[in-house]
Amino acid sequence: VTPSLNSKQDIHRDFKVPISNIQVIPNGIDFDTFCSLPNIVPRAYGVITTASADVPLKGLDFSLHAIAKIKSEYPDIKLTVIGSPRPGGHTERLIKKLKLVNQVFFKTNLTKAEITHEYAKNAVAIVSSLYEGFGFPVGEAMACATPLVATNVASIPEITDVFAQLIPAEDADAIYQGIKNIFQNPQKYKSQADLG
Q1: What does the alpha-carbon distance between residue 132 and residue 151 come to, in Å, rounded to a whole number?
Q2: With 0-12 CB in 10 A as exposed, 13-18 as middle and 19+ as buried, what is 89?
Q3: What is the pLDDT of residues 3-61, one digit of tens each?
Q4: Radius of gyration of the chain (CA)
C-alpha cells in the first residue's frame, strides 16, 4: 500500500514489485481542522512554508533565495517556516548570508489548529520539496485555501491538479515569480485556491 500513483511507479521501478501488487490509498487531510478561515485577513506580503526537517530534500534553500530576490521589491515580506533549523547549521548560516534575519521566522511544536491559523494569516504558501511521497503540506495548504506555489515533482501534481502554480524543482527564480504573481494579482490566485 502506498499513498500516491507516483510512489506506486517508484516502488515498481526501484524494487521490481509487480504493479498489480501495489494499491494506492492516499493519505487523508483532516478537513475539520485544516480549512479556510475567512474571518482572518492574511498579511499582504506574508509567505509560509513547511520544512519539518532541516534537510536539502525539502528545498528550503531555494525558497530562501527567492525571498532574498523579492525583498527589494516587497520589503515588508515575511516568511514563516513551520519547522526548526539546526542551531548553527546550514539554514541559519544561509539566512545570515542572504541578510534575511528580519524576514524569516521559524515556528515549531504547533498544533494542527495553530498551523491552520498560520496558513490563514499568510497570502502565499510554498512547497519547494525535491520529492514528496504524498506531501501533507500541499494538501494542508490547499485545504486552507492558501494560494500555493509548489514544485512539479513526484506526487505533488497529483494532489494539486490545476489549483496551484506548479514550478520546476530547484528553481529559486520560479519560486520568486510564483510569489510575485500572487502578490500582483491576489484575487485571481485566491479564487484558484478556493476552488481547490
Answers
A1: 10
A2: exposed
A3: 999 999 999 999 999 999 999 999 999 999 999 999 999 999 999 999 876 777 789 99
A4: 17
Contact (Cβ atoms closer than 8 angstroms) between residue 164 and residue 149: yes
Q: Is 187 helix (H, G, I), strand (E, B) or coil?
A: helix
What does the alpha-carbon distance between residue 28 and residue 46 come to, in Å, rounded to a whole number? Answer: 27
Summarize pLDDT for 103-159 with one digit per residue, the tens: 999 999 999 999 999 999 999 999 999 999 898 999 999 999 999 999 999 999 999
Say what the pTM is. 0.94
Q: Alpha-carbon distance 36 to 189, whole Å? A: 14
Q: What is the 3-state secondary structure (H, E, C) of 68-114?
A: HHHCCCCCCCEEEEECCCCCCCHHHHHHHHCCCCCCEEEECCCCHHH
Quote the CA–CA distance of 5 and 50 in Å, as a whole number: 23
